[in-house]
Amino acid sequence: MGIAVNARILTGGITGLQRYTSEILARLPVELERVGPERPLPRSIGNLWDQLILPMKLNGRGLWSPGNVGPLAIDRQVVTIHDVVALEAPHLVDRRFAAWYRWITPRLVRRVAHVLTTSEFSKSRIMRYAEIDEANITVIPNGVDSRFRPMEAAELDEMHSALSLPSKRYVLCVGSVEPRKNVGRLLEAWRSAEGSLPEDVHLVLAGKRRTVSTMDAVEKTGRRTSRVVWTGHVPDHLIAPLYAGATAFVFPSLYEGFGLPPLEAMACGVPVLSSDRASLPEVVGRCALFVDPEDTDAIASGIIRLVEDETLRAALVRAGRNRAAELTWDQCAERTWSVLQSVLGAQ
Length: 347
Known about the structure:
Layout: E1 3-6, H1 16-25, E2 33-35, H2 43-53, E3 62-65, E4 77-80, H3 85-88, H4 95-111, E5 114-117, H5 120-130, E6 137-139, H6 153-163, E7 169-174, H7 183-193, E8 201-206, H8 212-224, E9 228-232, H9 236-244, E10 248-251, H10 260-267, E11 272-275, H11 280-284, E12 289-291, H12 296-308, H13 310-325, H14 329-344
Parallel strand pairs: 1-2, 1-3, 3-4, 4-5, 5-6, 7-8, 7-10, 8-9, 10-11, 11-12
Helix pairs in contact: 6-9, 7-8, 7-12, 10-13
């Protein structure tokens, strides 16, 4: 009868969920039919499409829903739940988003044939909030694509020119600008740290605008210093060079179900400062400098150390590249396909 994939998530721009879905689909041994709307839909309309339209398009096929949500009407379904931030920390996400996922997630994971997730941390939280049998959930970590690697000067120069970066020395943060990414505290920490850093070192924030309040903080900081650069959304072909050119990478997130950006930075040979919360210690291992993301002084001190301490930088770069090499999209796709075949039947 076959397997289809819920492709609604692929109609939007490239974010973590889109990257996860695209990387796996590109590596499966067969091509799954992508069932999705013809154009991007507003979130509320998209949720209705999942529940009302998608089931009618399956014609008895099994379904893989890779983007945190799927139709409640389909029990012959594998769903990937990346995190349960809406259940565990609803104050970190949009109110309507939180309300919807707090309602649907427990019902969905108890309804479907199997649940995939990307970290032991997320598995423990899903089991806590949905009370499902451990046998019905499988942890398959995300991977890092081979294009994330150290790069030659010419590749970096092209990226600098395309993004109009003011300096070749910068501390980078990648992620959508929203409360759980903790950009406000990062900016406070930067204000404390920048006076102790060389004048040519800038802070580069790369990511989509999500909330007005956080962007207000960015703009206020921009008025106080010329050493903060917000790139907005970075085209996909420039994101790997942006990582590779960084002096250091900082990721002070308050909540992650996996946290792919630190691994991508490590693969590019960049030392990482990471939050010590949620899944991040599990994902990056002992290959980053960890800080309390609510302690701005600790973030500031960590940034200064990563920029100035060459011995620490070298050790983190070596360990980080080794850790990133352990997690590949090939392995992720192979394990995902094994679950889909086992649960939903052969394609």
